[in-house]
Design a protein that fits this description.
By secondary structure, the chain is mainly alpha-helical. Helix content is about 35%, strand content about 5%. α1 runs antiparallel to α2. The longest helix has 18 residues.
């Protein structure tokens, strides 16, 4: 026997009039070749050394951008390692 609904069931969706713009972050890539395969090296897991390197880059004026690529890569490395440990 079929089920008959007396009311129309619809999904309610919140409507917004504004569109979100994608984030635009400029990563510093002044390390050039040192960034190649950086995530695969032992250096990517040494956060203290990476932050010291970043501080040195800022002091010498080498840092150009909004965010250090090595710090970003090392944070990703940490996230990847922690997700493997949970499995």
């Amino acid at each position: 026997m079929p089920i008959i609904f007396e009311e129309e069931f619809t999904m309610r969706v919140k409507k917004t009039n504004r569109e979100q713009e994608p984030l635009s972050i400029e990563f510093c890539t002044e390390c050039n070749e040192a960034l190649d395969d950086f995530a695969l090296t032992q250096n990517s897991s040494n956060k203290k050394a990476i932050h010291e390197n970043f501080s040195n880059c800022k002091k010498t004026g080498k840092f150009k951008g909004e965010f250090c690529s090595k710090i970003f890569i090392s944070e990703e490395q940490i996230l990847n390692n922690s997700s493997k440990e949970e499995d």
